[in-house]
């Protein structure tokens, strides 16, 4: 898990880089502890308890999808508005805030690796930006975690342990990264002859950190004639029990064949790179 936060005095307008770097480790640990406690309350299904820091959050924006592979570190940018009173000292080393995402059905929780940066917009509001960090190689996710996650934000004070959370500020899809291949043969081929098009649809497995075939999925075979920029769909087929794809079509003119997958809530859409066939 990771977390994001930031603070900024009204007169300063920007959080010093050194402050953000120094506060990140303590913020991550403190925020994880706060959210671990919160997650125990009906798995984050109920609203957070009344804030004791005089802090609320709104206007949160996050990417519609976070696509995660098997090993590479992935980040998602988050922005939101923080509203606070004198109980929260913006810019103090004793205070931080940041976004998080959570999945109620699995208890999954992801934060950022460092505090968010906040810019004061009035005496009681600030515009904040931070990251959600995902490390699949460090087992941040299980396959069951793929799907819809909710977003929230929290604020905390290190010296007292006081905190405030706002839940249900938005949603994002955390998805298992997908790959799609294609091979059309023979090349070249005589006009009117049969072309066999093979390929495979696969997606990341977050538990063994490999790619496996995505089975029983609808995939479109598409064609783009030479000199054109648009693909047209020739037919739709279904991936087999190992994610493999195979079909045939008739050679008519020079062009590119590809497979196209529309995606699901757990797996992003993907297009194979077109394979050119010379028709003679």
UniProtKB/TrEMBL annotation:
UniProt keyword list: Signal
Signal sequence annotation: 1-20
Domain of life: Bacteria
Name of the protein described by the UniProt record: Lipoprotein
Phylogenetic placement of the source organism: Bacteria, Bacillati, Actinomycetota, Actinomycetes, Kitasatosporales
């Amino acid at each position: 898990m990771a977390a994001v936060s930031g603070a900024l005095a009204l007169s300063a307008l920007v959080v010093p880089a050194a402050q953000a770097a120094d506060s990140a480790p303590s913020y991550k640990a403190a925020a994880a502890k706060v959210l671990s406690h919160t997650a125990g309350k009906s798995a984050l299904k109920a609203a957070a308890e009344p804030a004791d820091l005089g802090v609320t959050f709104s206007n949160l924006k996050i990417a519609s999808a976070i696509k995660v592979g098997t090993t590479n570190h992935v980040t998602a940018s988050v922005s939101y508005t923080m509203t606070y009173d004198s109980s929260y000292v913006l810019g103090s080393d004793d205070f931080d805030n940041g976004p998080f995402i959570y999945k109620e059905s699995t208890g999954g929780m992801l934060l950022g690796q460092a505090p968010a940066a906040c810019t004061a917009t009035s005496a009681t509001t600030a515009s904040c930006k931070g990251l959600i960090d995902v490390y699949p190689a460090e087992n941040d996710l299980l396959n069951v975690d793929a799907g819809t996650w909710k977003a929230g934000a929290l604020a905390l004070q290190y010296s007292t342990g006081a905190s405030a959370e706002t839940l249900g500020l938005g949603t994002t899809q955390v998805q298992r990264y997908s790959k799609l291949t294609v091979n059309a043969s023979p090349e070249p081929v005589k006009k009117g002859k049969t072309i066999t098009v093979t390929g495979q649809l696969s997606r990341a497995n977050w538990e063994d950190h490999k790619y496996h075939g995505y089975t029983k999925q609808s995939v479109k075979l598409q064609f783009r004639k030479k000199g054109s920029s648009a693909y047209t769909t020739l037919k739709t087929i279904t991936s087999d029990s190992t994610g493999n794809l195979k079909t045939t079509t008739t050679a008519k003119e020079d062009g590119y064949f590809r497979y196209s997958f529309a995606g699901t809530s757990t797996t992003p859409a993907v297009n194979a790179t077109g394979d050119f066939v010379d028709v003679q």
